[in-house]
Amino acid sequence: MFRVIDFVVLIRLVAVGTTVLTLLLYTLIERYFPQILTIVRPFTLAPTIALVFTFLLTSKWISRRIWKIARFFNGSLYPDLNGVWEGEIIFEDDKGTLEARAVIRQFLLNTEIDMHTATAKSSTLEATPVISSGQFKLYYTYSTRPKKTDYGTYTGSTIFDIRLVGDETKTLELSGYYYTDRATRGRTRLRQISSDNNTDVSFY
Predict the structure, then answer these.
(1) Tell me: the pLDDT tens digits for 30-57?
(2) Distance CA 176, CA 162 (A)
(3) Region 83-194: CATH code
């Protein structure tokens, strides 16, 4: 099991990328703009390039585009979960179901899930995308605030399995058992209906 974002690889990528870009840019300046060589040296270029490179890799908008391009060439990379999800919460012991909606905001370094039902709202305490035995999973720990304030908040956790469902139109689905500190449990199942993560899906 490992995290999708390998920080060792990320740091090495920034280091190698900074070195290559610094040498390339210095060579171009030396060839086409020799008059400014007195103020430009590799050690003055490197910090700026490292800053720009790090910004690009960690920028939410840009990192998502890089992610999309990378997945185009390598479909085995972790899927982009950004967007609106709809589904249901299935209570244990056949106690019924409850409609659920969620918005997932997933970027290079963090994942956030806002889960909503007609009776409660949940916010992320920790969401960790992993690949375990070749299977995409999402470890999700959350805090829930019921609509009725006298019920008090509680915490819970879910290990979501991520898979593609549907015969013709493949759709991402999250499915997993949840457990809470109120000793309740059940199953949550959600399907992605949009990739727009700026949508309001609250019930109240």
Answers:
(1) 888 888 877 777 667 788 888 887 787 7
(2) 9
(3) 2.40.128
